[in-house]
């Protein structure tokens, strides 16, 4: 999981409203398609028992946390993987 994906999770977690791919793209300074691809990849990485990203056509995305403890462990684990990868390059 890259830094942008981590940021998408954070943006969705801190929002009280649905966030469209356009809104997320503007914040992240990438295209809407990039956000959509990242969300698709995030859905594949997340275990549905930990969290889901729910999408509502024309309205946006919602991050539904099912297990806070395992979500924190997931984010921490992926931060370490990302850090070790970027340190090698």
Q: What brief labels describe this structure?
A:
62% helix, globular, 89 residues, disordered C terminus, two-stranded antiparallel sheet, alpha+beta
Rounded average pLDDT: 85
Helix content estimate: 55-70%
Distance between the termini: 16 Å
> What's the story with the biggest beta sheet?
2 strands, antiparallel
Runs with pLDDT <50, length 5+?
A: 84-89
Class by SSE composition: alpha+beta
Q: How many strand units?
A: 2
β-strand amount: 5-15%
**Which overall shape is indicated by the principal axes computed on the Cα atoms?**
globular
Helix-strand pattern: HHHEEH
Radius of gyration: 13 Å
Number of helices: 4
Output the strand order for the largest sheet: 1-2
Characterize the structure shown.
The chain is an alpha+beta fold and 89 residues long. The chain contains four helices and two strands, in the order αααββα. It has a two-stranded antiparallel ribbon. A hairpin with a 3-residue loop joins β1 (51-56) and β2. The protein is globular and about 30 Å long. The model is unreliable at 84-89 (pLDDT under 50).
């Amino acid at each position: 999981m890259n830094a942008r994906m981590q940021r998408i999770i954070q943006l969705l977690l801190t929002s009280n409203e649905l966030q469209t791919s356009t809104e997320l793209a503007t914040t992240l300074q990438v295209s809407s398609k990039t956000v959509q691809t990242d969300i698709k990849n995030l859905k594949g990485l997340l275990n549905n028992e930990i969290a889901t990203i729910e999408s509502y056509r024309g309205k946006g995305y919602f991050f539904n946390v099912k297990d806070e403890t395992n979500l924190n462990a997931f984010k921490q684990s992926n931060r370490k993987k990302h850090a070790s990868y970027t340190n090698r390059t």
